Amino acid sequence: xxxxxxxxxxxxxxxxxxxxxxxxxxxxxxxxxxxxxxxxxxxxxxxxxxxxxxxxxxxxxxxxxxxxxxxxxxxxxxxxxxxxxxxxxxxxxxxxxxxxxxxxxxxxxxxxxxxxxxxxxxxxxxxxxxxxxxxxxxxxxxxxxxxxxxxxxxxxxxxxxxxxxxxxxxxxxxxxxxxxxxxxxxxxxxxxxxxxxxxxxxxxxxxxxxxxxxxxxxxxxxxxxxxxxxxxxxxxxxxxxxxxxxxxxxxxxxxxxxxxxxxxxxxxxxxxxxxxxxxxxxxxxxxxxxxxxxxxxxxxxxxxxxxxxxxxxxxxxxxxxxxxxxxxxxxxxxxxxxxxxxxxxxxxxxxxxxxxxxxxxxxxxxxxxxxxxxxxxxxxxxxxxxxxxxxxxxxxxxxxxxxxxxxxxxxxx
Length: 413
Prior knowledge:
By secondary structure, this protein is an alpha/beta fold. It has helices spanning about 20-30, 70-75, 105-115, 120-135, 140-145, 150-155, 160-175, 185-195, 210-215, 255-260, 305, 330-345, 395-410, and strands at about 5, 10-15, 35, 50, 55-60, 65, 85, 90-95, 95-100, 200, 225, 230, 235-240, 240-250, 270-280, 290-295, 300-305, 315-325, 350-365, 375-380, 380-385.
C-alpha cells in the first residue's frame, strides 16, 4: 500500500446505489464528514440506464412507484417527468387475453371480468376483497400478520387454484423474480398496497434519472466514482494503493460484494433476470400496459415507447421482455416465438438492440421475512441495501436511512 491519505472522514460509504446515496445524504445533513465511493463510473448500482443506438434501455425492466414513503421524501417527482403505465395487466392465455385492472381506478374492468365468464365470481370477489384490505388496512396491521408464502396467502384469500395459476402467478413471478410464489406474504401484501396507493411510471430519461437526482443533492466533494474498494481495514478502506481512513464504514453494495468486504455476512440468495430489447416498426400493443403469459414462457413484456415515446429516437417502438435466469440463444428464440403468439404478430422482423442480464437483481424473500434488519455488523462496520430489508427501491432507501441513524447513534459523544 502506497500510503494513507491525510484527510480523515467520519464515515466512508461504499457503493452509490440507492441505499448508499440515501445513507450519505442523511449523514451529510447531520453534519458529518462523509466520503461516498463508487466502483462504477456513475451512480445507481442496479438502477442504471444504457443508451444503445438511440434507444433508452434500463438495466433490466424497472418501474418507478410513486407511493413509496422514501421516494416521496427524497425525490422531486415532477423533475423526473414521469409517465404512467396502465393500472393493470394483460394476461395472454390460450383462450385469449384477460385484463386484470385496479378495481379502485377501473371498476368497469372488474365488472367486465365477471360478465365475460372467463373468471369465476369467487375470484372476482376475492380480488376485490384482497385489494380493499390492502388499500384500507394500516400498514402496521399488514406487517404484524403471521407470515406464510404468497401462494398460501392467495389460497387463504379465497382464490381458486385456476385463477392463481392462470393470472396471479404469471404476474407475480415478474414482481418477485421467482416462479413458485414462495415469497413472503407479508411482503406481497405491502407490494399490493403500494401498487394500489401509487402509480407505476417511467422517468423520461430512464430509471437512471432516479439515482442521478439523489446524487445531485450531495455536496460536490462527497462523491467519488471509478473508485473500487478492495478491502476494509481497522481504520478505513483500501482504494487502489491508498487507504482512506474513517471512524466508520458503511458497505452499501450489492449482496455478493458486501459479503466479500464483510466476512461473516450471510446475505440471502439472489434472483437473476435477463431483459431483451427489440426495435419494432409499429407498436404491437397500442397502450402502456404490461403483458404477461399464462404459460410463463416469459415474465413480462411491455412496449416501452407507449409509456415514454422518447425511449426510441427514430420513431420505432421499443419492446422490453424479461425472463428468469440467463437464457441460451435457443431459449431466446423460444421467447420470441412466445411473444409472436402473445402479441398476435410476426416477430421475425423484430430487431434485437440490447440484452442485459442482472444477477442478484432481487434478494430471495421467503417467510418469515424480517422487513428490516439492523445494519450493525461489527464495531464501526455497517451494511445496508435491499438485501438487508426488502427487494424494492423503498427497501434500499429505507435501509440506507437506517444505517445513517445507527451510525449517528454510535458516533455520538
